[in-house]
Amino acid sequence: MSLESVTLSRVKPSATMATDQKARELKAQGRNIISLGAGEPDFDTPENIKEAAIRAIREGKTKYTTVDGIPELKEAIAAKFARENGLAYKPSQVNVSPGGKPVIFNAMMATLNPGDEVIVPAPYWVSYPDMVLLAGGTPVFAPTTAASGFKLKPAELEAVITPRTRWLILNSPSNPSGAAYTRDELKGLAEVLLRHPQVWILTDDMYEHLMFDDMTFWTIAQVEPALY
Fold first, then answer.
1. Which structural domain range is residue 114 located in?
2. What is the pLDDT of residues 162-190, one digit of tens each?
3. Which residues pair with 139 in a beta bridge?
């Protein structure tokens, strides 16, 4: 008799981690490998961050904290949104987690019921659909093409929304395609979303500072205040 739950049987092992592990094994054999698995930069953690972490440990900041983040960190995050994105959030609206994946997973677990749908533009980061499945939801893929720059168009978004849709996951710039939405492109998607108030928007803005070719980063709450 298997101890595996039905929920766990719905998901697959991470292809990213499998690729990364294979690269490690080949490097250990002395092979010259360039790994395109885990999304890690080719530079080390900056010294000021290392020193801040060491200083925090020496100051005894190693105990349990407030569940949603220490007050000074939440205030700094709110200040970041005001400074870089023109968005006014209070610390009470900020929740700190140890990375982007826990934020997304917790959001899905807290809001999805069996049969609820989450729109995932494709190509997508490998963990999105599995997190939806673990939370009991159903991922609905919205394919994009090279011809569209791998960006979801308003008509394509409209076509996949149903009464069971609960979330749209937007990742811009995108992992893995690199596609980044312009202000006008986000405005077009926002106009569709305003017609479907049951659909919440989860913006994974992980790569907002990795912009090239004079592109300007926008998040959809900036573009359409009604979606704030």
1. 97-227
2. 999 999 999 999 988 999 999 999 999 99
3. 118
